[in-house]
Design goal:
Largest sheet: none
Radius of gyration: 26 Å
Mean pLDDT: 88
Shape: globular
Structural class: mainly alpha
Number of helices: 15
Oligomer: single chain
Low-confidence stretches: 1-35
Strand content: under 5%
Length: 305
């Protein structure tokens, strides 16, 4: 009786595991191996089905930061500058254009106007002509000449190292101020540009589309000591892989942590063709990148690259 019972149980188990009529059972290896894309999709589906707790989100966010640090150990501000004044002016000029275009434009500007006093006393039309390639050149001329005059008159020709002082300067908002504070003064800050906003939302760090609110929410997730480098890493990833219109999901190293996996191209070969700058084998944005940058320097204005 015991052997008959065991035989019955085996037959029942085999019946349940058999494929349905009209379907072919997949090989065991294909059911268990799985690709990185499949795992990412499965992970994303699981996260979508199960609401993520605040604690789980914070842990995932911090892991993203750690893994991005391994992917971009050379992350840095992508504007060429030699001092805080040049960084301030370059950041103001970078609005509504690329850092590359700014880097190609500022050498001539700073050669002619190396100090706030020089730029404040410039002829506006001459400044406009120099910065024309960055776009909105009349408004930008007014801003950089205005901030230069304020530095000359109110700060002894020096760029202040406090947020409350920087945001009073013409054309300087919180984003610009944090770029300067973090990279010229070593004061931690979160730079919420369009790339940072996009990725913070894709990664479910926030649901807001307001830069100030995003800054405040992200600040509660990460220790203050990480803010500046976090900004560089997220912006690097947004420019190189997690693009606005067509993210290169299939070439992304953190798909296993991304709840938005699948918004972009998931085929690895097709995704690889979407990569930009050093990830795609192209020149970077800086004419004078840091020594540890693994890509090629950008070409000067008018040069082929």
């Amino acid at each position: 009786m015991g052997e008959q019972g065991a035989s019955k149980r085996v037959k029942e188990a085999n019946r349940k595991s058999a494929p349905e009529p009209g379907r072919t059972a997949a090989p065991r290896s294909s059911r268990t191996a799985g690709t990185g894309s499949a795992r990412a999709a499965e992970s994303g589906s699981r996260r979508a089905a199960e609401p993520e707790s605040r604690l789980a989100m914070v842990r995932r966010a911090r892991r993203i930061n750690r893994e991005l640090a391994e992917v971009y150990p050379y992350a840095h501000p992508e504007l060429d500058f030699r001092n805080s004044f040049e960084l301030l002016v370059a950041t103001v000029l970078s609005a509504q254009t690329t850092d590359l275009r700014v880097n190609q434009t500022t050498p001539a500007l700073f050669a002619k106007y190396p100090t706030p006093e020089d730029l404040a006393a410039a002829v506006p039309e001459e400044v406009e002509e120099l910065i024309r390639p960055t776009g909105f050149f009349r408004a930008k001329t007014k801003s950089i000449m205005g901030l230069s005059a304020a530095l000359r008159d109110d700060f002894g020709g020096e760029v202040p190292g406090r947020l409350e002082d920087l945001v009073k300067l013409p054309g300087v908002g919180r984003k610009t101020a944090f770029v300067v504070l973090g990279n010229a003064f070593g004061v931690p800050g979160i730079t919420v540009d369009t790339h940072f906003m996009r990725l913070a939302r894709r990664w479910k760090w926030t649901e807001s589309d307001d830069p100030v609110k995003i800054e405040a929410e992200v600040a509660t997730i990460f220790p203050k000591s990480e803010w500046t480098m976090l900004s560089h890493r997220v912006i690097f990833h947004g420019r190189r892989i997690c693009h606005a219109r067509k993210p290169a999901c299939g070439a992304c190293p953190i798909t296993h942590l991304c709840p938005s996996y699948g918004e972009g191209e998931t085929d690895p070969e097709k995704a690889a063709k979407l990569l930009k700058y050093e990830k795609g084998g192209f020149p970077g944005q800086r004419l004078n990148p840091p020594p540890d940058y693994p890509g090629r320097p950008a070409p000067p204005l008018g040069a082929s690259g």
